[in-house]
Amino acid sequence: MKNIAILCSGGDVSGMNPAIKHFVEYSLKRGLTPYFVYDGYEGLIDNNITKASYKDVSGIINRGGTQIGSARSKRFMQPEFRKIAKENLDALNIHMLVVLGGDGSFRGLDIFYKEHGVQFCGVPSTIDNDINGTHYCLGVDTALNIIKTSIDAIRDTASSFKRAFVIETMGRDCGYLALISAITSGAELCLIPEIAYDLQSYEENFKEQIKNGRRYFIAIVSEGIKQDSQEIADWFEENIGIESRVSVLGHIQRGGNPTIYDRLMAYKFVTYAINGLLEGKDESVICYSKSGFEYKSIEEVTAHKYKLDLELVNFL
Ligand code: F6P
Question: Quick check: is 6 in a domain?
């Protein structure tokens, strides 16, 4: 029997647990022995690797986070720790890895492959949806749904009080979460790092809207914009003349019960990852676009920065 391992690296997402469950079940179905590596690359270095069975994954499909932990490993950036990681894998006769993570995690993996030849397939997993080459990353749908529920709740109180709410989403340098949330929540203002903005250009229109009876404003801002959310709220108070509050959604966006879409995508991504490894694909990332699933080389995925589809802005 061939051995195969799975690990999660970087920010966790809802959808990792369904992926882990399917990894175990599908590996066994394909005649492989599945292993868990705990706490990302840290677990590879510390030999925190165990054989997995059906029992380990029962009752986790509905849970956010990751049963096997995740980490951002600084040590894995150093060759001496990657050498230890390889020795640990060799001792267990593991030569195939499925890695759930973002492009930073894949970059580390690429170096590992070039040095030591451990065959891997990356599954794009980040709520930021900022991996070049794939239109979808695991966890995004759940995060968007959490944001939607939060905005809907905030709208209730915003409209009761005649207030502007500045709601900050995660996404690092990528405005995807903020943009999609703003479109689908009918927000009055959306600010994202990819698009330069001038608050002054909104002033006349917003004041006019208040005169015509508007009671509240919803502004969705991405964490990566040049100003902090409190400055936007201050602008509403001082320049638009409406009381304002800030709501930073923070890490609630990373947790929660995975949506049906993320559960299904987790199963599909993992099936393709394991199939790819068994077919001999050695350093690939399984990407998803309108035309379906496609294996891309790690170079292709990491060579460019993800570009947001700015046509989406037309829907604002
Ligand atoms: O990459 C996912 C993400 O949630 C980003 O949106 C955010 O900027 C970052 O991780 C937060 O990282 P941490 O959990 O280490 O605070």
Answer: yes
Are both 29 and 162 inside the same structural domain? no
What pLDDT score does 282 carry? 92
Check which CATH number belongs to the domain holding 177 and give it: 3.40.50.460
- 266 Cα to the center of ligand 1, angstroms: 20
- Do 221 and 200 sit in the same domain of this protein? yes
Strand 244-248 relative to strand 283-289, pairing: unpaired
Tell me, what's the pLDDT at 63?
A: 98
Low-confidence stretches of the chain (pLDDT < 70) are none
| Ligand 1 centre distance from Cα of residue 11 (Å) | 6
- Counting Cβ atoms within 10 Å, is residue 221 exposed (0-12), middle (13-18) or buried (19+)? buried
In a domain, 315, yes or no: no
Structure tokens at 236: 């509403």
Residue pair 265/19 in contact (Cβ under 8 Å)? The answer is: no
Which residues are CB-neighbours of 45 under 8 A, at least 6 positions away?
Answer: 73, 75, 76, 81, 84, 85, 88
Query: CA angle at residue 266 from 61 to 12, to 5 degrees?
Result: 75
Residue 14: per-residue pLDDT: 98
Could you tell me if 161 and 215 lie in one domain?
A: yes
Domain count, the chain: 2
Residue-number span of the structural domain to which 222 is assigned:
141-254
- How far apart are alpha carbons 109 and 41 in whole angstroms? 9
DSSP state, residue 125: B
Residues framing ligand 1 (Cβ under 6 A): 11, 102, 126-128, 170-172, 223, 254
Give the residue from 149, 197, 147, 152 showing the smallest Cα distance to 177: 147
